[in-house]
Amino acid sequence: MKTLEQIESRTPISSLPFTITNSGSYYFVKNMTSTGHGVVVQTDHVDIDMCGFKIQGDYDFADKGLYLNGLTNDSIQSVRIHNGRVTGFGYACYAKNVESCVLQ
């Protein structure tokens, strides 16, 4: 019998804020709200499937819904975020020091 990890190897995102520091695939499990940044990506090779869900901010215009935050001397590469909506943030998506990013 296969383990759950063998069947679903992606990491669930079930609350915000959520910071990604490990490469891999992630997926949303529900609509979510945040009083700060939503999802912060700080590493390469990340795929986030929002699964048709949305993230909602609290209308603090300093916050970023999707924050791709590369280091000054080391950019983030190969990030894909797809299949969802972002609303109520100052920036829906803010990408700093990023290469090869796809938003769908």
How would you describe this structure to a colleague?
This protein is mainly beta and 104 residues long. It has one domain. The protein has one helix and twelve strands, in the order αββββββββββββ. The strands form three sheets. The chain has a five-stranded parallel β-sheet with strand order 1-3-6-9-12, with no helix packed on it. A four-stranded parallel β-sheet has the order 2-5-8-11, with no helix packed on it. The relative contact order is 0.21.
Mean pLDDT: 92
Number of E-type strands: 12
Number of helices: 1
Radius of gyration: 14 Å
Low-confidence stretches: none
Strand order of the largest sheet: 1-3-6-9-12
What is the overall shape? globular
Question: What percent of residues are in strands?
Answer: over 45%
* Span between termini: 35 Å
Helix content: under 10%
Order of helices and strands: HEEEEEEEEEEEE
Give the number of domains: 1
Major sheet summary line: 5 strands, parallel
Class per helix and strand makeup: mainly beta
Can you describe this structure in just a few lines?
This protein is mainly beta.
